[in-house]
């Protein structure tokens, strides 16, 4: 039986989870997974849709990033496709203004698959992106200040492309944990002016379940200042919701968000105060590994290991859990009052041979109060 399924209207799904952190979903037929029968598939970009260099680069970068995943599956992509359509034997991605398919959504993936007693497989997948720019004000780069998640006006094309490529791999929505198949607008590794879109732990685990583990040594530890906050009900239509990580007192009371500058909140703290900083850590790679995390204080949100080291911590991370946790640090009593950032750097001492180091740093803003403000 041949079936056609847009990414938001799928039936027959299977939840694979031992705890709420094991929350990837994928298509099934009679209890069997529906996947590609080979580990490499092409994806062709429409020549007109990706005529601009910035749009071309957005697709190019996200295909490269999704191929960092520790499964055996990889996309090959090309540009210059002059004729796109459904059921033409090609996997394609293009912009369209037809709301018959998009229904005002930023993107949708239509998948053709075969479901039989003997074998279930994906036959073709096509990604459609919102071409009516009055409905979606796209930005094509990783520039943080322009993004709606950081107070800007634009939606990240790269985040939507990564989410839809996840559907093209064979994944459904994530509804119970932090992941790009959930609230993709709020799923990034952010340091300084860049909010880097990535595939992430949950989607990588789903890809490994579908296609097996790569024979290559793909190891990658990441950290983010986003976290899971609310579950959806149905992976066919809902998404997990994400929000920024917070800062807490030692009694686990959330510290008040104070001054906002350049789209960033700064939590109000005192000189010499011990606080708990919250980050989400992910093992996006192949193996369970221990990783050393350094926590730094900086005068800006571009965190480096050259900033003031506050403490270190050792974590053992498996791939089956996006691990959001709090770490106690002490604000130096001698620093001047003002706006600062506390940053976390995974593998700060370079003990792991990682596929990429571009996701190893995240930050949270703080406002160190003047002595007069404490009374």
Write the layout of secondary structure elements.
Layout: E1 2-6, E2 13-15, E3 25-29, E4 32-33, E5 40-46, H1 53-66, E6 74-81, E7 92-96, H2 99-102, E8 107-115, E9 120-130, E10 138-139, E11 155-156, H3 157-169, E12 189-191, E13 194-196, H4 200-211, E14 221-224, E15 226-230, E16 241-244, E17 247-248, E18 257-261, E19 264-269, E20 274-283, E21 289-298, E22 308-317, E23 323-330, E24 338-346, E25 361-368
Parallel strand pairs: 5-6, 5-7, 7-9, 10-11, 19-25
Antiparallel strand pairs: 1-8, 2-3, 3-4, 8-9, 12-13, 14-20, 15-16, 17-20, 18-19, 20-23, 21-22, 21-24, 24-25
Helix pairs in contact: 1-3
Structure description:
By secondary structure, the protein is mostly beta strands. It folds into two domains: about 1-215, Collagenase (Catalytic Domain) (3-Layer(aba) Sandwich); about 245-375, Immunoglobulins (Immunoglobulin-like, Sandwich). Helix content is about 10%, strand content about 40%. The chain is built from four helices and 25 strands. A six-stranded mixed beta sheet has the order 1-8-9-7-5-6. Strands 18-19-25-24-21-22 form a six-stranded mixed beta sheet, with no helix packed on it. Strands 14, 17, 20 and 23 form a four-stranded antiparallel beta sheet that branches. Helix 1 links the parallel strand 5 (about 40-45) and strand 6. The chain starts with a strand and ends in a 7-residue tail after the last strand.
């Amino acid at each position: 039986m041949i079936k056609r399924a847009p990414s938001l209207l799928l039936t027959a799904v299977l939840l694979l989870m031992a705890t709420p952190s094991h929350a990837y979903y994928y298509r099934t037929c009679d209890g069997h997974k529906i996947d590609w029968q080979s580990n490499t598939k092409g994806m062709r970009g429409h020549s007109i849709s990706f005529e601009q260099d910035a749009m071309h680069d957005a697709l190019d970068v996200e295909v490269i990033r999704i191929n960092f995943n520790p499964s055996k599956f990889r996309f090959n992509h090309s540009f210059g496709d002059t004729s796109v359509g459904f059921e033409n034997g090609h996997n394609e991605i293009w912009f369209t203004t037809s709301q018959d398919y998009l229904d005002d959504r930023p993107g949708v993936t239509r998948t053709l698959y075969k479901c039989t007693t003997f074998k279930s497989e994906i036959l073709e997948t096509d990604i459609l992106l919102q071409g009516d720019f009055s409905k979606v004000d796209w930005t094509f780069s990783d520039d943080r200040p322009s993004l709606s998640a950081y107070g800007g006006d634009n939606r990240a094309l790269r985040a939507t492309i990564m989410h839809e490529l996840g559907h093209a791999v064979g994944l459904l929505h994530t509804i119970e944990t932090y992941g790009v198949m959930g609230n993709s607008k709020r799923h990034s590794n952010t340091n300084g002016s860049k909010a880097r879109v990535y595939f992430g732990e949950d989607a990588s685990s789903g890809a490994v379940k579908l296609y097996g583990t790569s024979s290559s040594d793909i190891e990658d530890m990441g950290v983010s200042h986003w976290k899971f906050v609310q579950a959806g009900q149905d992976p066919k239509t809902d998404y997990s919701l994400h929000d920024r990580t917070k800062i807490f007192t030692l009694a686990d009371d959330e510290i008040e968000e104070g001054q906002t500058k350049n789209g960033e909140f700064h939590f109000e703290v005192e000189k010499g105060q011990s606080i708990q900083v919250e980050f989400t850590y992910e093992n996006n790679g192949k193996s369970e590994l221990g990783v050393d995390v350094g926590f730094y204080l900086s005068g800006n949100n571009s965190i480096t290991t050259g900033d003031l080291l506050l403490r270190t911590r050792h974590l053992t991370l498996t791939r089956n859990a996006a691990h959001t946790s709090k770490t106690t640090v002490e604000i130096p009593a001698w620093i001047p009052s003002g706006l600062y950032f506390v940053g976390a750097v995974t593998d700060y001492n370079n003990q792991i041979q990682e596929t990429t180091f571009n996701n190893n740093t995240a930050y949270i803003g703080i406002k160190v109060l003047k002595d007069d403000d404490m009374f």
